[in-house]
Amino acid sequence: MASAIHTYFGLSYATHLVVPRTLLQSMPPQWQERFTDLLTELDDTFATVPRAEAYIVQAAEEKTAGDLTATERRAAGISTDEHGALSRTTLLGEVTEADGDDLVLVPVPDPVPHYNRGRTRLQPSTT
Question: What is the pTM of this model?
């Protein structure tokens, strides 16, 4: 039986949840208290589990590698050799083969405004 978290992530292969700070600080104060209490409980529960010091998070769109423009290929770390074969370079410099049907992430500007030292607020929808 799938857990609530597994169900929430759906069919994605995501291993992390990224939530924009601006959206969090736009929620009502009572909601923020409940959320931060849960985060504190999570941190306390797994205090002995090693974690990375920081993560790189960037807004992106999923696109098919074979459909990328030259600019999008460069931004996604995709290159072609003289025969048109695609390869992908990771942030750590690892190069692997890429298929034209592979989904890749192409960086885009973040549509959510910067949190601006806690001052930015967005109006929640009322659906």
Answer: 0.77
What is the residue extent of each domain of the chain? 1-58+112-127, 60-108
Q: Are 123 and 84 in contact (CB under 8 A)?
A: no
Location of structure tokens 């990771």: 90
Residue 25, classed as helix, strand or coil, is helix
Distance CA 31, CA 52 (A): 27
* pLDDT tens digits for range 20-64: 999 999 999 999 999 999 999 999 999 999 999 999 999 999 999
